[in-house]
Amino acid sequence: MKHLLAIRDLTAADVHAILALSEQSAPRVLQNKGVALYFEKPSARTRNSMEMATAQLGGHPVYLQPAELGIGTRESIEDVTHTLACYHSMIAARVFDHGLLEQMAAVSAAPVLNMLSATDHPLQALADLLTIKQLLGRLEGARIVFIGEGNNVAKSLAEACALVGATFVLASPPGHGFLESVADAREVLDPAAAVEGADIVYTDVWVSMGGEDSEERRALFEPYQVDEGLMALAPNARFMHCLPARRGEEVTAPVIDGPRSAIWRQAENRMHTARGAMLWMMGVTPETESKNDQEEIEGGAGLFGRPGHVDHPQVAADRV
Question: What is the mean pLDDT of residues 29-37?
């Protein structure tokens, strides 16, 4: 039984297999089967991407909230996990405490997928890798620079970069880097120095959901805003953001809405890599035959009979 709780639990071969599965046609391996989607924290992208990925595999997603399950209050974690496994082929959870996921997985009643925890966000990292691969045509040797706090998104992406041979640099204010060293990640204080030679410049909100906000915190992070001046120091870099975004805070509107932004391709890839991750967890192996170049350009969207996503009107014009 395969669980996916954190990127560090995967091998490089696992990551490449998930990415390959994310770009291939969707076998209906979940036909007439359920997937439990437990949300302690709401999310637009996570719910939509997971529900659609489940449907593409033939399954039926069931959205669950804390009041419905009463984990740790009305019933034990073990009893809830066993109960869900009676109806579902997989349990996916978006939680505060990563330990809850580990306890669910330890029951070994059904495969457990981490949709987000306080410490890890593996599905976001996989979508980021797929986006980077599509943008650059490679992962090995790519230089990814994350501007902001060393949060769960940064941590998972740093771990993923280490597995695929990419360089990860975190530029954050003093005291806001990683809580502990992460793989081969490099940490710096100066964002301008960090973006030199970057292929990808990435940022996230200054205050995560449920985090503590203050004027002092905003003042501390203000020099880490990704604006046109910072992007000018990395003239060949594309911009990424996991969303939701606060324009005028961690990023300016001309950057996130500009021609170098890949945020909508990145958001769409949440669905494709969610599908790839579930296929990998169910033991499906990638097809040996490579897909054609047009599907690569479309970022997988062509697999479902509609035009590929256009990142930005100017980018689309450049392709013609």
Answer: 98
- The CATH class, in words, for 7-116 is alpha beta
From the candidate CATH numbers 2.40.30.40, 3.40.50.300, 3.10.20.120, 3.40.50.1370, the one assigned to the domain spanning 122-264: 3.40.50.1370
Cα–Cα distance between 177 and 188 in angstroms, integer?
9
Locate 127 and state its tokens.
């979508």
* Nearest of 220, 217, 241 to residue 124 by alpha carbon: 241
- Report, as an integer, the average pLDDT of 7-14: 97
Residue written as token pair 């970069």: 161
Closest by Cα among 278, 130, 149, 272 to 202: 149
Residues in the chain: 320
Tokens standing for residue 77 = 């974690």
The model carries a pTM of 0.91
pLDDT bracket for residue 89 (50, 70, 90): very high
* Cα–Cα distances in angstroms (integers) from residue 102 to residues 42, 67, 81, 90, 166, in the given order: 21, 21, 11, 15, 28
Q: How confident is the model at residue 232, as a pLDDT?
A: 98
Is the pLDDT at 55 greater than 90? The verdict is yes
CA 117 – CA 95 distance, rounded (Å): 5
3-state secondary structure of 38: strand
> Contact 305/162 with Cβ under 8 angstroms?
no
Q: Quick one: pLDDT at residue 309? A: 54
pLDDT at 319 over 60: no
Strand partners, 60: 34
